[in-house]
Amino acid sequence: MSRNLRITLIFGGFVTAVTAAFYPIFFHPLSHKEEYREIQKINRAGINQADIQPAGVKVWSDPFKPKS
């Protein structure tokens, strides 16, 4: 096996491994927004953010919420 082919296969394997690791973390939620919105509604039911969030700290918006 030539040296260039071996380096290409190692690099390609690394890129494949990184892509496989990031897919469920980043790409799947972006392509299934409605599903994740429903899950967040269920998970956040009954939680008052003012009780959890310290006073004076900026509150980040829901990334899946449509912009008005």
Explain this structure.
With 68 residues, this protein is mainly alpha-helical. The protein has a domain at 3-43. It contains three helices and no strands. The model has no long low-confidence stretch (mean pLDDT 85).
**Per the principal axes of the C-alpha atoms, what is the gross shape?**
elongated
Low-pLDDT sequence parts: none
Give the helix tally: 3
**Helicity, in percent?**
55-70%
| Biggest sheet overview | none
End-to-end Cα distance: 57 Å
Using only CA atoms, what is the Rg? 20 Å
How many beta-strand runs?
0
Q: Mean pLDDT score, rounded?
A: 85
The fraction of residues in strands falls at: under 5%
Encode the helix/strand succession as letters.
HHH
Oligomer: single chain
Structural class: mainly alpha
Transmembrane segments: 7-26
Keywords: Membrane, Transmembrane, Transmembrane helix
Pfam families: MITRAC7_Phoenixin
GO cellular component, one term: mitochondrial inner membrane
Topology readout:
Layout lengths: L2 H29 L1 H11 L5 H4 L16
How would you describe this structure in keywords?
68 residues, mainly alpha
Describe the structure concisely for a colleague:
Helices cover 65% and strands 0% of the residues. The chain has 68 residues and is an all-alpha fold.
